[in-house]
Amino acid sequence: MNNFIFFPIVILLVVFHFLFFRSFLDRGTNLIVFCANALFAFNGITVYRKSSFYKFVLYLFGYLLLFIFVLLLHKSPLIFTLFVILFSAFFLNTYLLIYLAIFILAIVFVTPYWLQAFLLFGLYYFFCHRIYKKTFSGFLVAMFTVGFIFVLLITFPILYFASQVTFQSLLAAAKNPGFQGALLNSFFTSIISTLIILVLGVPFAYVMARCDFSGKKILDNLIDLPILIPQTVAGVALLVLLGPKSPLGEFMYKNCHIAVANGYLGIIAAQVFVSSPFLIRSAVNAFEGVDQKLEDASRTLGSSPFNTFWRISLPLAGSGIFNGCILSWARSLSEVGSLMVIAYYPMTASVFIYDEFIKYGLTETQPIAILLVLNCLWAFIALRWVRYQLIKR
Amino acid sequence: MFLKISQLNRSWNGFSLKDISFEIGEGSYFAILGPCGAGKTMLLNVIAGLYRADTGNIFAEGEDITFMPAEKRNIGYLFQKDALFPHLSVKENIYYGLRYRKPDMQYLDTILELLDIKDLLPRRDIVNLSGGQARKIALARSLAIRPRLLLLDEPLSFLDPVSRQNVMDNLKSLHKDGMTIIHVSHDIQEIKASADGVAVLFNGAIAQTGTVNEILSRPAQILKEKFWGNNYA
Q1: Could you tell me the domains of chain A?
Q2: Which run of H or E residues covers position B161?
Q3: Which residues of A lie inside 8 Å of B (Cβ-Cβ)?
Q4: Contact A299/B97, CB-based, under 8 Å?
Q5: Which helix (H) or strand (E) holds A133?
Q6: Taking a C-beta distance cutoff of 8 angstroms, is the pair A239, A261 a contact?
Q7: Residue B27 gets which letter from DSSP?
Q8: pLDDT tens string for chain A (393 positions)?
Q9: CA A133/CA A128 separation, integer angstroms
């Protein structure tokens, strides 16, 4: 840069600051703002030389906006200085500039939640940018925008709720023996019920996927029935069938000393009932995704139908079935309604939380609830990871 | 007669095979020609035992196999799109059928030699094979069980000209070694050089049988009109 441009600009800036900025800034702040303005001015020369005149106008316009909103309306010269420095540094990199814009908008307009707003909208822009770079489709970005609202609806309550408790209260809740027992009960029963659905549901799913027969549609709808039925109704139905006063329950108790209601068997029965659709539906879809040709090929090579199922259909549908297991297990774990009817004791974690809420209220329940969510979350993520490894192989 | 099909009927989803009858001698190269949707693949499926015939009989080497399940028929079948098992390696694919019978490793060796795919055996993934390689592996897989009859469903489709010629040569030398082959195709040029008998299938019924030359020189009226057009040959 030659002196021919350098000195006029410095002189201009000094005059400008001496006459204009001094009227509303004190001396120290004025000096800092002066530095930022100098950076802006010299970077402006680079912008003017390297890119179009149009961009240079945008550059000036950006400064004007910052000046009006941050310095004049918001009255924070230090933040203004910071923004001007970042703005000049990022201007030629559109990607970073947009993050800066989000940052500035978050601070200026939603000051109390600026961090949350910046993180969320930054994340939103990050995904939009990725999608657009891959597909060059504005339509997909618009669809994503709608979808992101949905993501916010799901994650925001949980995240906000999780940010409300301290680590100490979590530790105290973890030491609660009642909760520990309930959590163990939950994991134990949900695993057993998932295994039961797996063993009984997979053969059924295979038949549903592999052949058309009259009446199949009825069975097909029957699979989804437990989703439709309210959980309490499911509990009542099971209690009517298996409760201590029903003929079957009485028979089982007298002859085998098995009590279903208010016992592990009752919990498992209820969980199997409510969570079976998830596994069976996934398994049906998975089996439908296996090409019939492959099974035919296996048959012509001398493999019996059972061997074909074991060596071809099951491995190929495996990842879909595993996903169904995860869903089913998660559903069993989160079941409350039917359990409160058929087996309030022994308590599972979800019933325990309801019980705490009734007895002690919201504040006491919060750490326990978060602890349950955390426990389920790590197991869920671990299972998903296992599934990912299975697919990769 | 090696394979004899008599008055075979089969209907499924509104389509039917009507009164199919033909005979194939041992070691012959028989072609079934027909346009798309003529029922060629369905006929092969019935012969292989994947579909059961509604009426009629299938005899192989004098034995009635009409009600025999597919896995006991010992008939090799090359599917239209190869149908290789995607979760198994190349070697596991080829060796798949050997578990269910006494494996004849020497025969398998000659097959691998003939098809020239020995260097593919150590490869793990099925997905990245070229079309010709996949076709040959599928062929080797169906031959590994030492079938008495080989069914080929459009074995030259979806191949580039070089691999096409290559597979065609392989089929010819297989035939020369004594394998009985049924080759299904919609293109008479494909089987002109190798087939010694042809049946033309049209709308689920056999329209004409004979040698390639007979079909070409005196095609049945319905074929002239609907399949080849009047100006063919």
Answers
A1: 3-92 (no CATH), 170-392 (1.10.3720.10)
A2: helix B161-176
A3: 291, 293-294, 296-305, 307, 311-312, 315-316
A4: no
A5: helix A114-135
A6: yes
A7: T
A8: 566 777 888 888 888 888 888 888 888 888 888 889 989 988 888 888 888 888 889 999 999 988 888 888 888 888 889 999 999 988 888 888 899 989 888 888 887 778 878 888 898 999 999 999 998 988 999 999 999 999 888 877 777 777 778 888 888 888 888 899 999 999 999 999 999 999 999 999 999 999 888 889 999 999 999 999 999 999 999 999 988 888 888 888 888 888 888 889 999 999 999 999 999 999 999 999 999 999 999 999 999 999 999 999 999 999 899 999 999 999 999 999 999 998 888 899 999 999 999 999 888 888 888 888 888 889 889 988 988 887 776
A9: 8
In what helix (H) or strand (E) does residue B108 lie, and over which residues does it extend? helix B105-115
| d(CA B218, nearest CA chain A) in Å | 37
Tell me if B147 sits within 8 A of B48, measured CB to CB.
Answer: no
Nearest by CB to A301, which of B69, B87, B145? B145
Distance of CA A160 to the CA centre of its chain: 13
Could you identify the residue written with the tokens 């009734």?
A: A358
Is the alpha carbon torsion for A324, A328, A330, A331 positive or negative? positive
Q: Among candidates B172, B163, B174, B102, which has minimal Cα distance to B140?
A: B174
Q: How far apart are CA A255 and CA A95, in angstroms?
A: 74
Please answer whether residues A139 and A100 qualify as being in contact, where contact means their C-beta atoms are separated by less than 8 angstroms: no
Q: In what order do the strands lie in the sheet with B197-202?
A: B75-78, B149-153, B180-185, B29-33, B197-202, B205-210
Residue B184 neighbours by CB under 8 Å, 6+ apart:
B31, B32, B34, B40, B41, B43, B44, B151, B152, B153, B154
Amino acid identity, residue B71?
E
The minimum CA-CA distance between A311 and chain B, rounded to whole Å, is 10
Token pair of B147 as six digits: 């079938």
What pTM does this model have? 0.80
State both tokens at A222. Answer: 């029957």
Strands B55-60 and B3-12, by their bridges, are: antiparallel
List residues bridging with B12 in a β-sheet.
B15
Q: Burial code of B24-53, b = ≥16 C-beta within 10 A, e = fewer?
A: beeebbbbbbbeeebbbbbbbbbbbbbbeb
Buried b (16+ CB within 10 A) or exposed e, A84-120: bbbbbebbeeeeebbbbbbbbebbbeeeeebeebbeb
Instruction: Please state, in angstroms and rounded to a whole number, the distance separating the CA atoms of residues B194 and B101.
Output: 31
Q: Under DSSP, is residue B165 helix (H, G, I), strand (E, B) or coil?
A: helix
Strand duo B149-153 + B197-202: pairing: unpaired
Beta carbons of B99 and B86 less than 8 angstroms apart: no
CA angle B208, B187, B61 (to 5 degrees): 55
Pick from B79, B87, B145: CB nearest A302:
B145
Contacts of A65 (CB under 8 A, 6+ apart): none
A189 touches A271 (CB < 8 A): yes
Size of interface A-B (CB pairs under 8 A): 66
**Beta pairing, strands B180-185 & B55-60:** unpaired
Are residues A323 and A282 in contact, defined by beta-carbon separation less than 8 angstroms?
yes
Q: Do B70 and A296 touch (CB under 8 A)?
A: yes
Cα–Cα distance measured from residue A53 to residue A66, given in angstroms and rounded to the nearest whole number: 20
